[in-house]
């Protein structure tokens, strides 16, 4: 397992005299053979600025930084893959923060790149290579021409073509899960928010948040264009917006109008579910799918990251329980991090949370964050750290009726009839 690194010009190398290592939390760890898979199609290897890779010098057996003007590298995995370790590195400038990506450990062996990851879902639908840019441009031009006054389509065209957001692209390709953002505000102050960062955060938000409130008609236009097949999904709550349920009135009115016109497809919301009364109204309007974002089932950890305003993790649990009881296919967008998500106390808390809320699906999503900043923010571990692979095995054993995946799915059978 040769250490992989980049030189000062960004050229990629492997070092036959050094063994690559990974990290679990703040601990440097050796990589196990059963943790490694070939670099998946659609993955990207990137440099970690202001770092040095840490490996084992084979001749001496010493664990130390690789000498020279070099930097560590990591793999950014496509949807469907759960990382098991972050790259083994040290920072050369502790004041510098890594860009907001989910870095996975990568090594070279048997004449190819390998990463520490586990396949949890079918990556085909979310493979960037399946988004044909020519077809996308045609779709963008067609819908912008058809709805020249619809600000949502103008906003989403930048998401699709500028940020290469696959959900926004699906909206114009009229396939699979499409996007309908509605909110410019949020009731949480997530430390790793990808659409809005305070000026003193040290992070650069990779996306720009929408800055307008759409009309019901604008939302209905997007929904009706997308809900054209039985398996279509249209989703409130995107990376380019705040918390969608803050605009519950617009969502409810739009859903009721759409369901007067068609029963086709599924309506989904990606939400923090903190506004329980708003979520109840959205559920009662005919919601089919709900994905709730969380980083932990422990209050102190959850609060440290989300900085909730006017709600608590108990509200999130109430919202999920209400939706599940009403027949909504519920899931969590579980933001995972090796050395944290696999802590003994977190596993126990999350198993209880899943069982109490009646969840159907856990979407394992690699947390995009600077590791040092995140570890300084959250509580220290209280018990054993099991490792991500064992954590996934525990979930599979303890939750046999819960799907372990990576993205929103159409339910295996209709769970409720739209209004």
How does this structure look, described?
This is Radical SAM protein. It comes from Paenibacillus montanisoli. Keywords: 4Fe-4S, Iron, Iron-sulfur, Metal-binding, S-adenosyl-L-methionine. There is one protein chain. By secondary structure, the chain is of the alpha+beta class. The chain folds into two domains: 2-119, no CATH class; 124-405, TIM Barrel (Alpha-Beta Barrel), CATH 3.20.20.70. Helix content is 29%, strand content 25%. The protein is built from eleven helices and 22 strands. The strands form three sheets. Strands 1, 2, 5, 6, 7, 8, 9, 10, 12, 13, 14 and 15 form a twelve-stranded antiparallel beta sheet that branches. Helix 1 packs antiparallel against helix 2. The longest helix has 14 residues, at 133-146. The chain is globular, with a radius of gyration of 22 Å. The model is unreliable at 414-419 (pLDDT under 50).
């Amino acid at each position: 397992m040769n250490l992989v690194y980049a030189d000062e010009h960004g050229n990629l190398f492997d070092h036959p005299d050094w063994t690559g290592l990974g990290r679990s939390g703040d601990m440097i760890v050796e990589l196990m053979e059963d943790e490694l898979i070939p670099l998946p199609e659609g993955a990207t290897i990137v440099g970690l600025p202001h770092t040095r890779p840490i490996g084992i010098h084979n001749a001496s057996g010493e664990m130390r930084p690789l000498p020279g003007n070099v930097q560590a590298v990591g793999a950014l995995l496509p949807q469907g893959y759960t990382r098991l370790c972050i790259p083994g590195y040290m920072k050369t400038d502790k004041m510098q923060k890594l860009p907001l990506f989910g870095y996975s450990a990568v090594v070279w062996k048997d004449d190819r790149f390998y990463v520490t990851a586990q396949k949890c879902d079918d990556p085909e639908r979310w493979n960037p290579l399946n988004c044909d840019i020519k077809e996308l441009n045609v779709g963008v031009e067609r819908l912008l021409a058809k709805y020249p006054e619809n600000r949502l389509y103008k906003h989403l065209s930048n998401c699709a073509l500028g940020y290469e957001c696959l959900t926004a692209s699906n909206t114009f390709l009229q396939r699979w899960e499409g996007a309908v953002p509605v909110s410019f505000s949020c009731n949480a102050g997530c430390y790793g928010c990808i659409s809005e960062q305070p000026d003193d955060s040290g992070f650069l938000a990779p996306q720009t948040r929408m800055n307008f409130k759409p009309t019901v008609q604008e939302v209905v236009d997007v929904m009706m264009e997308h809900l054209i097949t039985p398996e279509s999904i249209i989703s409130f709550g995107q990376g380019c917006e705040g918390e969608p349920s803050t605009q519950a009135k617009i969502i409810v009115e739009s859903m009721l109008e759409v369901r007067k016109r068609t029963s086709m497809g599924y309506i989904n919301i990606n939400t923090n579910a903190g506004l329980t009364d708003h979520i109840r109204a959205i559920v009662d309007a005919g919601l089919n799918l709900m994905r709730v974002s969380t980083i932990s089932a422990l209050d102190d950890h959850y609060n440290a990251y989300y900085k909730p305003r006017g709600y608590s993790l108990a509200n999130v649990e109430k919202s999920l329980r209400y939706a599940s009881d009403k027949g909504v296919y519920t899931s969590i967008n579980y933001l995972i991090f090796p050395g944290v998500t696999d802590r003994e106390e977190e596993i126990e808390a999350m198993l209880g949370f899943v069982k109490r809320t009646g969840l159907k699906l856990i979407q394992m999503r690699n947390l995009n964050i600077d590791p040092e900043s995140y570890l300084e923010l959250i509580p220290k571990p209280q018990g054993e750290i099991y490792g991500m692979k064992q954590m996934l095995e525990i979930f599979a054993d303890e939750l046999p009726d819960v799907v372990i995946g990576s993205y929103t799915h159409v339910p295996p059978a209709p769970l409720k009839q739209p209004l």
